[in-house]
């Protein structure tokens, strides 16, 4: 149990692997038994036909909510499904208590269709700053962990994003058209230009991992729900990358960002993509 005087850094030094174990257990108990075995009644729509939720999402989030708050007494959870049920609960991100930001199944559409491109994301933030993150792809059994100031690793091996190859087209994953408004589509059209190879994104968490591994140069996202970005942005930062909004400022998990925004392998790439998104050359 955490002591009253223990800092988040001290907690992470003691319990980092315990959080990883909780994430793995949630996936083993609630997600993987339903993978490629979902019944029709276990899949629902939220805001529309492209916004799906399953029993795996709901039950994995409940599992993690109990496990994570037990590990860190006094902490709170902001989870995608709980916020859908009670939007006011999102405000905890701006509160004083340590907050776990949870996306139980990122890439639900892929999960529903039996594709292994989904993951579970957990981030621990305090004062609006992400201090640690876990991205677990259970169908692939791969986990990426980042701790602020201590680097990032995939399955225990250090991650370094590096820089794009000079002269090559930038590989950019951008908000999927199914999830964007007409105005957002117009904003993202700026990436349809010479020197940029843009494509729709899959699971946001796995796209962030691709940047941290140097397999993708940048993202361009038009929404700011913290559960989709908090874990991945820290992973990118700790692997040597960065992130900027179209206003040229770092993305804030507390909101009020100038959208779209980008995460990229290095600062030069981030500035190039952010410049395009803001209407620059």
Automatic annotation (TrEMBL):
InterPro entries membership: Inositol_monoP_metal-BS (IPR020583), Inositol_monophosphatase-like (IPR000760), Inositol_monophosphatase_CS (IPR020550)
Pfam families per UniProt: Inositol_P
The organism of origin for this protein: Streptomyces phyllanthi
An annotated Gene Ontology molecular function: metal ion binding
Cofactor: Mg(2+)
Binding site for Mg(2+): 80, 103, 106, 228
BP term (GO), one: phosphatidylinositol phosphate biosynthetic process
UniProt keyword list: Hydrolase, Magnesium, Metal-binding
EC number(s) per entry: 3.1.3.25
Enzyme class at the top of the EC tree: hydrolase
Gene3D superfamilies documented for this protein: 3.40.190.80, Fructose-1,6-Bisphosphatase, subunit A, domain 1 (3.30.540.10)
Reactions the enzyme catalyzes: a myo-inositol phosphate + H2O = myo-inositol + phosphate
Lineage: Bacteria, Bacillati, Actinomycetota, Actinomycetes, Kitasatosporales
Descriptive protein name: inositol-phosphate phosphatase
């Amino acid at each position: 149990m955490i002591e009253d005087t223990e800092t988040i850094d001290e907690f992470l030094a003691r319990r980092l692997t315990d959080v990883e174990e909780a994430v793995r257990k949630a996936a083993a108990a609630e997600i993987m038994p339903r993978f490629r075995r979902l019944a029709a009644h276990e899949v629902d729509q939220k805001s529309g036909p492209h916004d799906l939720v399953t029993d795996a999402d709901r039950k994995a989030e409940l599992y993690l909510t109990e496990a994570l708050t037990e590990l860190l007494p006094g902490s709170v959870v902001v989870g995608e499904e709980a916020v859908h049920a009670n939007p006011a609960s999102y405000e905890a991100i701006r509160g004083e208590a340590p907050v776990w930001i949870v996306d139980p199944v990122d890439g639900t559409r892929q999960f529903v269709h039996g594709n292994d491109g989904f993951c579970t994301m957990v981030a621990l933030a305090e004062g609006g700053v992400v201090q640690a993150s876990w991205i677990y792809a259970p169908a692939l059994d791969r986990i990426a962990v980042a701790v602020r100031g201590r680097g990032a690793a995939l399955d225990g091996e250090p991650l370094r994003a590096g820089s794009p190859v000079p002269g090559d087209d930038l590989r950019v994953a951008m908000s999927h058209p199914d999830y964007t408004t007409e105005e957002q589509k117009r904003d993202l059209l700026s990436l349809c230009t010479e020197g940029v190879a843009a494509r729709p994104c899959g699971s946001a968490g796995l796209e962030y991992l691709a940047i941290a591994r140097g397999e993708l140069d940048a993202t361009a996202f038009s929404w700011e729900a913290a559960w989709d970005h908090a874990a991945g942005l820290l992973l990118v930062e700790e692997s040597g990358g960065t992130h900027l909004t179209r206003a040229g400022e770092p993305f804030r998990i507390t909101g009020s960002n100038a959208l779209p925004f980008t995460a990229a392998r290095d600062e030069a790439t981030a500035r190039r993509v952010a410049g395009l998104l803001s209407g620059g050359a």
